[in-house]
Amino acid sequence: MPKCGFIILQQPLNPYHKTLADDLFEDIRNQYKVIQPEINLILDSDYLEVKGFWTIHPLFKLIAEKKEVDWVVFLEDHTRIDLGKLLQVLQYYDSSRDVFAGYALEDINPTIIHHFASTGRESILQYPHFSAGFFISTTLANKLTQRCGDCIFSIDPKYEVRPYA
């Protein structure tokens, strides 16, 4: 059974979003109780203190240090998952490889929020749909830690994590 942890991207100072995140965490915990996989629920205290955690980049180091998990699943506070199906999907991947998987969004035309990085049809941009959730292997997180360093500045993290996907 895949060993995975979860990071719920949230706004902990906003009561509405904190409640959504707490509900999601409890839903995952309840699903866990039913199927009992090898899973680690990464608690808020593990990542909420990381400066700029919402940009994802500063979390790579934390993830790389999590020796007890092979996968980390990123969810937004309003995302919902079927844990059993997720674990089935993870079995198709090799956690010793660089894996970044999720639902891809595309910008067919350049947009100002993405800094006009796309200059034509030949360079359609794909980036992860955070609301659908995505997962990465801790093997990839280790490499991204070295590549990114202390990246904490971000304008559009959903787009800026794109080179790693």
From TrEMBL:
Would the keyword Nucleus be found if you checked this record's keyword annotation?
no
Q: Which UniProt keywords apply?
A: Glycosyltransferase, Membrane, Signal-anchor, Transferase, Transmembrane, Transmembrane helix
UniProt superkingdom: Eukaryota
| Compartments, record wording | Membrane
GO CC, one annotated term:
membrane
Residues covered by the Fringe-like glycosyltransferase domain: 67-153
Q: Which GO terms describe its molecular function?
A: glycosyltransferase activity
How is this protein named in the record? Fringe-like glycosyltransferase domain-containing protein
Source lineage:
Eukaryota, Metazoa, Ecdysozoa, Arthropoda, Chelicerata
